[in-house]
Structures are given as structure tokens and as C-alpha cells.
Design a protein that fits this description.
There is one protein chain. The protein is mainly beta. It has a domain at about 45-185. The protein is built from one helix and 43 strands. It has a 28-stranded parallel sheet that branches. A 15-stranded mixed sheet has the order 2-3-6-9-11-13-16-19-22-25-28-31-34-37-40, with no helix packed on it. A hairpin with a 2-residue loop joins β2 and β3.
């Protein structure tokens, strides 16, 4: 009886062994989508294609602009534009943006393709709100790679060889896993209250990252930019970042901020500079031409940093700061601290024979020369 039931169940569930004749129709997507073309999305005086209704749109192939026109204009709210792996390219001369939304629209998503060789910005959503841009490359444009307004989320995007900023973003934007390289201005130009995570700014002519007030930059790298690697204004937080071979300071925080667990190496002006009312903790500064750390105001806590082979190890220009548990070695001048700071003892580690004997086994009497919990060390 069990064998009979199994045979019946198998017969009932099995599909046909031979496919039907003729071409196989595509499986419908999760929503109806509209192709960008002259019939569905005709342009106007300043656009080749224009989206005027909310919905989901996609490219059927590469698109090219025209003189005096943007390639695609989004003139509606709640639009998703899938570039479908294709390129939006400006005209040979005199075109406008690749993709733009010039008015106060919201909830626009652009994904999965590239924009290049426009005579203005690659993507310009100057007034749009609550936009999402992901998996888009913007390169070789005469303006910004991406100029995006407030409250946008930008992820897995790249900006390369644009004539202005790679990314120029409004207030409250969140970026992750983005790269900006070889742009004529800044890699990333951020307005207030932006967050940057896991991004790279490399070889931009001005600065890698410029942030206005209350920006947060985490797990991010600034390499070989013409001026500052990472520069944030009042209230900035920079954590677990790397700044290497930049023309200005590797990391610069104006004040009332935090710089922690960062590495600043071989930057021209110096490693890390902070203003007043800040925390500067557990950073490594190595081989910077200027100071490894410069504090230029008061009420800053400088703790647990290591500065090696810089012009000056730790330089504090004004009184009213606290300096504890730091270490300096091999700097031209290890410590340059103004009067009226609270400073833990500065101890020269080791002895005339060197730092100390080799250690093997279970005990060692120590060679740092102090048991003070807030001591700073020269070694």
C-alpha cells in the first residue's frame, strides 16, 4: 500500500519532461517596470528622457546625451531607476548632467550602472530628499561625480577623475563602501551630520574627506590626497581610520570631537591635529613631517597615543589640557608642551644600556622606570 501511495504522489507532483515549443517567456519581475525610451519617457527642452510619474524604470541599453540637455531628468516622487548595468554618457560637448532631479522630489533610487563624460555633474539630485544611490560609478565628468541633497543613503559607489568633488552630499547623508579617486577637488565633501563607513579617498587634488559639523567617519582610509586626509568640523568623530601620505594633516578635527584608534603616517603637515574640548586617544602617529599630534586649544584629553619618528612627537600649544599615558620615540623633539597643562610624569624608559634585557620566563622586574598610572614614556 505504501509503495502505491508513493508512486501516485510522484506521478502527481512531477512536471512535463519536454519543454514547450518556441521561445521561453521571461519571468515577470516583482513589479511592472517601464523602459526608458523616446516613447515611454520623452524628453523636453533640457532633457533627452524625462520621468514624470512615480514607478520603476530601467535602461534597455546605453544612453547618450545631447547638447544643452541632461540625459535623464526625474520629475516625480517615488521613482526607482535601474541602470541595468548600462552607461549614461554625456554628449561629445555641451551636455548637462547625466541624471538629474532639479526640483523638490523625494524617495528616488538609482542603482546598478555608470554615468560618465557629462559636461556637468554625473548625478545631480540637488533638491531631492531621501534618495538611495547604490552600485553606481560616476567618472570623467566636468562637475561632481555625485551631487546629492539631504538624507541620502549612498553605498558601493565610486567616483573617478571628475573635475570637481567626487561626492558632494547634503545634511544627514550616510555613505558606506564608497571610493573616490583622482578627482580635481575633494574626494568627499560632506555637509552636517553625515556618517562615512568603510570608504576610501585616494589621490584627490584637494582633501580626501571634508566634513561639516557633527560628522562621523569610521573604518575609512585617506591616502595621497593633496591637502588633509580627513578633516571634520566641530563635533566630529573619527575612529579606526588610516591617513597616509596626505599633503596636509592626516586627520584634522576642529574641536568638541573624538579621534581614536587611528593611524596617521607620513603626512606632510602632521599626523593628527585637534582643537579644544576633544578626546584624542589610542592613536598611532608615525613618520609625519610635522607633529605627530598637535593640540592647538584647551580642554582636550590626550591619552594613550604613540608617536614615533615625527618632526615633534606631541605638541600642545596652550595650557588647560590633560596629557597622560602617551609614549614618544625617535621624534626630532619628543615633547613640546605649553605651560599650565596637567601632565603625567614623563619618564625615560630603560637605562644607559638600552631599554632592558631580553625577557624569557615568568617574571621581569621591568625597565620603564615608573609605576605611576598616568605616566608618559619616552623610549
Amino acid at each position: 500500500m505504501h509503495l502505491i501511495c508513493l508512486a501516485l504522489a510522484t506521478t502527481t507532483l512531477a512536471g512535463p519532461l519536454d519543454p514547450p515549443a518556441g521561445p521561453i517567456a521571461p519571468t515577470p519581475g516583482p513589479e511592472p517596470r517601464i523602459a526608458i525610451n523616446a516613447t515611454n519617457t520623452p524628453g523636453d527642452a533640457d532633457s533627452v528622457y524625462r520621468i514624470v510619474q512615480h514607478g520603476s524604470y530601467y535602461l534597455e541599453g546605453n544612453l547618450t546625451g545631447a547638447v544643452g540637455k541632461s540625459v535623464i531628468e526625474i520629475a516625480a516622487d517615488s521613482v526607482t531607476l535601474d541602470l541595468n548595468g548600462f552607461e549614461v554618457r554625456g554628449a561629445a560637448s555641451g551636455s548637462l548632467q547625466g541624471i538629474t532631479s532639479p526640483n523638490f522630489h523625494s524617495n528616488i533610487t538609482i542603482r546598478n550602472g555608470s554615468v560618465a563624460f557629462c559636461f556637468s555633474d554625473g548625478i545631480r539630485l540637488t533638491f531631492a530628499r531621501n534618495c538611495i544611490i547604490k552600485d553606481v560609478q560616476s567618472s570623467n565628468n566636468n562637475g561632481d561625480g555625485f551631487r546629492i541633497s539631504n538624507n541620502a543613503v549612498v553605498t558601493r559607489c565610486t567616483a573617478f577623475n571628475n573635475s570637481e568633488d567626487g561626492f558632494d552630499l547634503g545634511d544627514g547623508c550616510a555613505l558606506s563602501h564608497c571610493t573616490s579617486r583622482e578627482n580635481t577637488a575633494n574626494g568627499f565633501n560632506l555637509a552636517d551630520a553625515c556618517t562615512v563607513t568603510d570608504c576610501v579617498a585616494y589621490d584627490n587634488d584637494v582633501s580626501g574627506f571634508i566634513g561639516a559639523t557633527n560628522c562621523t567617519v569610521t573604518n575609512t582610509t585617506a591616502y595621497s590626497n593633496g591637502n588633509a586626509g580627513i578633516a571634520v568640523n566641530v563635533g566630529g568623530v573619527v575612529t579606526a581610520c588610516s591617513a597616509f601620505l596626505n599633503g596636509g594633516y592626516g586627520i584634522n578635527c576642529s574641536g568638541s570631537g573624538v579621534v581614536s584608534d587611528c593611524a596617521a603616517r607620513a603626512n606632510t603637515a602632521g599626523g593628527i591635529r585637534v582643537g579644544g574640548q576633544s578626546n584624542l586617544q589610542d592613536n598611532m602617529c608615525h613618520a609625519n613631517t610635522g607633529p605627530g599630534i598637535l593640540v592647538s586649544a584647551l580642554d582636550t584629553r590626550i591619552e594613550g597615543n604613540n608617536c614615533v619618528a615625527n618632526g615633534t612627537g606631541i605638541k600642545v600649544d596652550l595650557g588647560g589640557n590633560i596629557i597622560v599615558r602617551n609614549s614618544c620615540s625617535g621624534n626630532t623633539t619628543n615633547w613640546n608642551l605649553a605651560a599650565n597643562n596637567a601632565v603625567g610624569p614623563i619618564v625615560l624608559a630603560g637605562d644607559a644600556a638600552g631599554i632592558g634585557a631580553a625577557v624569557m620566563g615568568d617574571t621581569f622586574v621591568g625597565s620603564v622606570g615608573s609605576t605611576h598610572p598616568n605616566a608618559n614614556f619616552t623610549y
